[in-house]
Amino acid sequence: MVEHGDIRVVHRGGSKIDFRQPVITNDSRFLLCASGECVKVFSTSTEECIHDLQGHTDLVTGVLLRPSNHLQVYSCSIDGTVRLWDFTDGILIKTYVIGCPVYSIYASANHEGVIFIVVPMLGDKRSELFQLVAVHLPQSGDQLVESRELSAVLSNVSSNPADIAFGRGGEYIASAKGLQLKVFFFKKQKSYEFSLKEDNKKGGLNTFTCVACHPKDDCIATGHGDGKIRLWRNFNHKKEYTYSTLHWHHNAVSSLCFTPEGTNLLSGGVESVLVQWRYNQESQRDFLPRLGAAITHIAVSPDGALFCTSHSDNKITIIQSCVKVSAVIQGLVKVLRLMARTKEGESVQTDLIVDPRSKALVLNGKPGHLQFYSLQRDKLLYNLDIVQQEYIHELGLEQFEVVKAAFDASGTWLATVEERKQKSAELEVNLKLWAFDEQTQSFVLNTTISAPHEARITAMCFRQATDSQTTMLVSTSKDGHFKAWQLATPAHTEDEGPSWSCDFVGTYHGLVPECCCFSADSSLLAVSFQEVVTVWSPTSWELLTTLSQPPGAIRDLCFGRLSCSKYLLGTTAKNLLCCWNLLTCSLEWSTSMDISLLLADPLSENMAAFCCQAGCTDLFVFKPSEPRPLFSHKAVCSGTVTRAVFAPREKMLDSCEENSQWLNRSQLHFLTQYMDLMTFTTKAEDDRLMASSKQLVIDDSVAMTPFYLLLGKHRHQQQENQDPMSSLSAERTPLPQSSVAIKELLQTPAHVLPSTSFLCSMFVQSLLISVTDLSGCRENNKKAEEEMESEKEEEDSEQEMESSIVRSEQAAVSVQSAECAAPALTKAQVRELRRLKKLDHSWLAGLLDS
Amino acid sequence: MASFKPTNIPVYPKLGEKVTQDTLYWKNYKAPVQIKEFGAITNIDFSPVTPHNFAVTAFTRIHIYGPFSQEPVKTFTRFKDTAYCGRFRSDGQLLVAGCEDSVVRLFDVGGKVALRMFRGHTKAVHVTDFTSDRYQILTGSDDYTCRLWDIPNATELNVYQEHTDYIRCGITSKLNRDLFITGSYDHTLKVFDARVDKSVMSMDHGQPIESLLLYPSEGLLVSAGGRYVKVWDLLKGGQPLVSLRNHHKTVTCLALSSNGQRLLSASLDRHVKVYSTTNYKVVHNFDYAASILSLALAPDDESIVVGMTNSILSIKHRKSPEESREISGQQRRRPSYRVFVKGKNYVPKQDDYLVSKPVKQYLAKYDKQLKKFNVSKALDCALEKWIRLRNPEVPVAVIKELDRRGTLKNALAGRDEQQLSRLLSFLIGNLVDMRFAPVLVVAAEMILDIYRSILGQSPVIDRQLLRMQDLLEREIDYQKELVEVLGMLDTMFASSLPKMEVPCSSVSRSNGLSILIQV
């Protein structure tokens, strides 16, 4: 096969943000968290991602504020480096090469120039034993620093960052592993060990799960597997140590954190309740319940005003002093948990679907929810609560899961199937139909059908045609029936609106239907019953024909689109891809391939087939009418791909290269075994994205106001002008907002201000200057004849200059900036420059108009 | 922080009668006025002119009632024997009635004494009517004859002796003065033309005919006899159109609603059925206390008058539009509600500053307990008497929720005799309800597991458990029978199903029998 260099598989958004404890900066404006191979900087007020600190080549395992400089942050990674960043600008300052994978990072203000990291004992990646080592960071001006001088502090520690904590003032460090708590005192260079029995009388698990140290007091708090919290004191004695126990959690405590003043202790676990204990008055507790999902990490801002909790559903919640949730940063919810539970390889989750209305990707989210994820903006739009029940956070409890979802062609109807299987009781299945409400712009429950089938529903699809008056849904089930559901107008005045009811029940020789599919024009319905494909007419419910290609049960069914709509494609469990011609009712072609997933692009004739071969998945894109595949890609990822979708593009690409044409109308997204969302992009698209991302660098300090939008536009124009002059691009021109004129304009009470007509000209002028500044610089490089012209006009502008203080102020600023660019400017030159700036109003007006 | 999601109480489809436009229309009558007459009421006839008085023939009298009077405005008592079939002329001035003594009497509505007496029949006259020219009278008698009489001369014009049994119903055409139709116990109905001596059309109803009705267009004729109501197309030479069998006793009377859209039939089975005249499906049903002999509808359906064998006359008046609106209006005017909606319809002005206030979430008692994880208390709250009896779906939903939370066992355990007996009585009441069975069976099994050890300690509980056992055994027998019936039906359907070209096993619409029985 030909390798197509210009089409690549890229990771598409939705990276994990709950992997490690997030960090809130000193001024509480930013939140930093490790996310895959980069560190994300979020704004705590707007929830937007401001920077990606990119540079690591492997998973980032820890983020830590530098104790000596609160504007810098350390990050460590499996790739064996520790990097120092300036997070406000997103610049990499230094890279320390450690040489072996780093699993977590600690530092204390008392240990200047030293960081403590957890590395594998033997220095190789496979080792299960870890040690805590101190690294002296060499002072050098270089970007890349080798620092391989490691001095071991504690051996046999846990790789979980929550299990190690610095004590009061960095005097000691506490580490827990299994049933043992170690405390190491730096002054005495001595460590104490305390161990607990495996389980206590009541059968609770005593294993340590997390450690936190009081910032002002000699006290260590430890969380345990049975939900207990122990507060250890007097631990500098081998024998006379004491501990007190707090118990509220009923499952393992996953995170503990003291507030900076040490007045409160925060704890969280699978119950998804944030508990705040008063230090020394432990009977007083505050609760913040129903945070959505199990708490994995808790962090407190250095001033104690903000708390943040990471949750297992890839979410970070920012809480204002334990009373109010102020912001929620929600990533794409991963449903790995589900994959692990079903052992037979049949994943209990919905297909990837694209909402025809919002073009958002829809898939399982939080338990009992569907998440709408915008692919264009890489942002979770919202979660739709399908189950509508109080979620009980308890391990081992069977919950309702959304297992199937389908949209109709126009996006006005959503059908969902939820299931709950209990050991003792029967399977509970609900089919719910949701109507899109224009007013609230969300889906509203229309009909709930409890127990639509007697067994699990295997497939579900809507009738595609948009012009038909009646919408129809077909569901197939393991009970051997397939049912057609139709929207019925209310027959009785009592009912409020139309609701769904069963229209037809079909069977075929008592076989179990597996898949169903409507043809592009909705005139045919294909239902596969094990080895047999039956084709029905949905209008009369007549069985038109049966197609069969034994051996092997049908796994996927797909009708061709557009010019290929006469073809019906099916894959069988016995590695066969068959294509039937519906006009002749015969097999057109078949080929032997182990296809794990077959899907059709709704906007073109193309079909995509994912083949599983030797632990890798290959992709073939083909037209049913042509024997040669349009595109093939070997080994798109490891493992099998079971979920994929063609998402329509917002703007059509106009690529005419043969192998990338299939990406013109829609983009193929797929989920890997590890629930990573991947997609295919072309080179041209990448380039365009890069260009646009450069443009979109926005200074976060600027608030989004109408003024900002107005001025921001200006700035873009400037930048465009600036582009040819590379010498000036590094220089930062001050934004007009900071000018005194605008500050005055915005901050002075309205009744004191002079008339608007007067202000208007002043305001507009203040805008003009900032551009002048630029043009002034450009003027420098231009020819002398323009200067000649400007000299003539000098006298008029002189007068104007006196009248406006604002102007001169602004000019001064711009001069400063000019000086930065070229410090060798003499006073005479400056004056000339200033004069030049006054002169080209006409030129500017033209620029503004354009 | 999301708010607590209350327990979802499913709304089950209401069993029984569905509310349709027809139901609303025919239910919009006041409570009936009941008047005791002297004997069985054999005929009711409305005067065609306002104020639409109606004549009620019962025993030896004819009473004339005004539209709203509960006392007769007029009484005709000069009958020697039982009177039959008092009918108004089309101008409402004259009234004719037959009698057991074979004499036909003609009355002036204003007078008391008969204006004319027509003698000629030899047996009781059960049928009398005016022809549309208003000068002749049609009579039908038990002597198998029907006759035409001239009113001014009081003479017999013609005798028709074609029927071979009692003539018990007859009707004259409103459009043609010469046409009339009679129905007899000899199962035939005959159309006569006064201009010829013989019947022009004869139809066989199959049962003794009790009542006849002509559509206003007079193209269709409705006859009632036995349990059947049949519709005949006169324009196609008396072709039978439909045969309705919705009563289980003899149909005695027919009526047509004012707009001709609905046909009413009254029967000895004490029901009045309302049919749609487009598809002849029953759209509504009235129940009465006794067998119905006569039925009449006032013009514009203002009232329904029914006469029964127990000599009770029941008059239902239609509710006036104000009245039917008043009921809903009263509800709206309740003071507590007014306090409730105070300021609801206030439209904010442009410069109003809206202070948003968090809406307080009101939770039911059981939800409050569930929120606190007090599972036993939540179940107790849901099992309060008035909830348990009035909406059993609430306790069932709470039990289901507890089961989902995995704490149902905790909630059921540790109960004293009184609490347990309350729980058991709820189970006994609802266990075999198809809608609740899946949830309650789980709960019942758990109760048996938990309390097995203490069996025999309390006579109350033991008795209830025995009752439950009895109930379950009966239910199992019942299910067994149903499955047998299903099997029988399947074989019948299989044999009656036409062979299709494509082999295809049982294909049935969802509302087909097989689905219904599975349920």
UniProtKB/TrEMBL annotation, chain A:
Localisation: Nucleus, Nucleolus
Q: Does the keyword rRNA processing apply?
A: yes
Q: Which residues form the WD repeats?
A: 53-95, 246-287
Where does it mainly reside?
A: nucleus
InterPro entries, sorted: Beta-prop_WDR75_2nd, Quino_amine_DH_bsu, Quinoprotein_ADH-like_sf, WD40/YVTN_repeat-like_dom_sf, WD40_repeat_CS, WD40_rpt, WDR75, Znf_C2H2_type
Instruction: Return the GO cellular component terms, semicolon-separated.
Output: small-subunit processome
Keywords assigned by UniProt? Nucleus, Repeat, Ribosome biogenesis, rRNA processing, Transcription, WD repeat
Q: Where is this region: Disordered?
A: 779-810
The residue ranges flagged as biased composition, category Acidic residues, are: 786-801
Question: Which positions fall inside the C2H2-type domain?
Answer: 33-56
The protein's name: C2H2-type domain-containing protein
Query: Looking at the keywords, is Transcription present?
Result: yes
Q: Which GO terms describe its molecular function?
A: RNA binding
Pfam families recorded: Beta-prop_WDR75_1st, Beta-prop_WDR75_2nd
Task: State any GO BP term from the record.
Answer: positive regulation of transcription by RNA polymerase I
Automatic annotation (TrEMBL), chain B:
Q: Name one GO biological process term.
A: positive regulation of transcription by RNA polymerase I
- What are the start and end residues of each WD repeat? 118-159, 244-285
Pfam families reported in the protein's UniProt record: UTP15_C (PF09384), WD40 (PF00400)
Fetch the CDD domains from UniProt.
WD40
Q: What transmembrane ranges does the database entry give?
A: none
Q: Which residues form the U3 small nucleolar RNA-associated protein 15 C-terminal domain?
A: 345-491
List, alphabetically, the SMART domains matched.
WD40
Which InterPro entries does the entry mention?
A: U3_snoRNA-assocProt_15_C (IPR018983), WD40/YVTN_repeat-like_dom_sf (IPR015943), WD40_repeat_CS (IPR019775), WD40_repeat_dom_sf (IPR036322), WD40_rpt (IPR001680)
Q: What is its main location?
A: nucleus
**Record's Gene Ontology CC terms?**
nucleolus
Where would you find this protein in the cell? Nucleus, Nucleolus
Write out the function statement from the record. Answer: Ribosome biogenesis factor. Involved in nucleolar processing of pre-18S ribosomal RNA. Required for optimal pre-ribosomal RNA transcription by RNA polymerase I. Part of the small subunit (SSU) processome, first precursor of the small eukaryotic ribosomal subunit. During the assembly of the SSU processome in the nucleolus, many ribosome biogenesis factors, an RNA chaperone and ribosomal proteins associate with the nascent pre-rRNA and work in concert to generate RNA folding, modifications, rearrangements and cleavage as well as targeted degradation of pre-ribosomal RNA by the RNA exosome.
- PANTHER family, per database record: U3 SMALL NUCLEOLAR RNA-ASSOCIATED PROTEIN 15 HOMOLOG, UTP15 U3 SMALL NUCLEOLAR RNA-ASSOCIATED PROTEIN 15 FAMILY MEMBER
UniProt subunit comment? Part of the small subunit (SSU) processome, composed of more than 70 proteins and the RNA chaperone small nucleolar RNA (snoRNA) U3. May be a component of the proposed t-UTP subcomplex of the ribosomal small subunit (SSU) processome.
**What is this protein's name?**
U3 small nucleolar RNA-associated protein 15 homolog
Species assigned in the record: Amphiprion ocellaris (Clown anemonefish)
